[in-house]
Specification:
single chain, 296 residues, Ribosomal Protein S5, domain 2, Alpha-Beta Plaits, seven-stranded mixed sheet, binds cytidine-5'-monophosphate
Length: 296
């Protein structure tokens, strides 16, 4: 069997409201996922040797962890168990997406492994797709979005109930700022003061306005000011470096600057390359990494 190379793109959340707490301890969300062209690459190579081996080439802030803890490895393990196949696989992962950054890097890797293995092993029937979707949801709340294969998806429930949206963001360049440190997601949800019903209903109205603006084809000047992320409430006061970068982007004229997911990345949407370059320059005094990206 021949090997397979797959791209594993990152995401940003253009909108994220916490609409409730669930009996299973997770939170119900209303979120808008957007895939971007900042990406890791993965090679899956069937092996003569039994087992799953993962090697990582670090081009970002990746800190080595036991391979069994890596979502790419865990996705392969879940695939072979779920489809009752004997594992014999080498995975090579080139890591460019910062980890612990709200960009869904690990979740994207997991989805890419599930997708790649389903191709290699020809598990492509509708029943196989349903099984893959279940495996994805078991690996993490953001994994189903990456498996869905759409650039834009509305997410509800834990983020696994998805609706693909054919949005038209207009001409844009995203400026992403990663401050160099991770923000672990569980702590963010634990520290969150849940919004009351009135705040949630204001958010739902803002969300509808955002979607409408993004369907209209108007550029970021029309839709970026409507972006919201409830998870900024617990994170920004506790992490001045994130708040400072966000303030710098706003002061430099960004139509909207916001944290992605549970952080630590902050991003802004510019209407032109020149504006993006100006926003990136405003981040010069901040230590960390700046990326330019597009929805993809
Ligand atoms: O599903 P995932 O592993 O990405 O979630 C990490 C943590 O984030 C969970 O353990 C939970 O504390 C929190 N979370 C949540 N509600 C969500 C998604 C994540 O409470 N919808």
């Amino acid at each position: 069997m021949k090997g397979l190379s797959v791209l594993s793109r990152a995401k940003v959340n253009l909108f994220l409201e916490v609409t409730g707490r669930r009996p299973d301890g997770y939170h119900d969300l209303l979120t808008l996922f957007a895939r971007i062209n900042l990406a890791d690459s993965l090679t899956l190579r069937p092996s003569a040797k039994p087992g799953i081996r993962l090697s990582v080439v670090n081009k970002s802030n990746f800190v080595p962890i036991p391979q069994e803890k890596n979502l790419a490895w865990r996705a392969a393990d879940a695939f072979y168990r779920g489809f009752r196949l004997e594992p014999a696989l080498d995975i090579r992962l080139v890591k460019r997406i910062p980890a612990g950054a709200g960009l869904g890097g690990g979740s994207s890797n997991a989805a890419a492994v599930l997708e790649g293995l389903s191709r290699l092993h020809r598990r492509r029937s509708p029943a196989d797709r349903r099984r893959l979707a279940r495996l994805a949801a078991g690996l993490g709340s953001d994994v189903p979005f990456f498996l869905a294969g759409s650039v834009f998806c509305e997410g509800r429930g834990r983020g696994e109930k998805l609706k693909a949206l054919a949005l038209k963001p207009g001409r844009h360049t995203l400026v992403l700022y990663f401050p160099g440190f991770q923000v672990p997601t569980p702590g963010v949800y634990a520290a969150l003061e849940r919004p009351g019903p009135a705040a949630v209903s204001v958010s739902r109205r803002d969300y509808r306005r955002l979607i409408k603006a993004m369907f209209s084809g108007a550029g970021p000047a029309a839709w970026a000011p409507l972006m919201r992320n409830r998870l900024e409430d617990p994170v920004l006061p506790a992490r001045p470096a994130i708040a400072r970068a966000r303030a710098r982007l706003s002061a430099a004229g960004a139509a909207g600057a916001m944290m992605s997911g549970s952080g630590s990345t902050v991003f802004a949407a510019a209407g032109s390359r020149a504006e993006a370059a100006r926003l990136a320059r405003a981040l010069k005094p901040c230590k960390g990494m700046v990326f330019l990206a597009e929805f993809a």
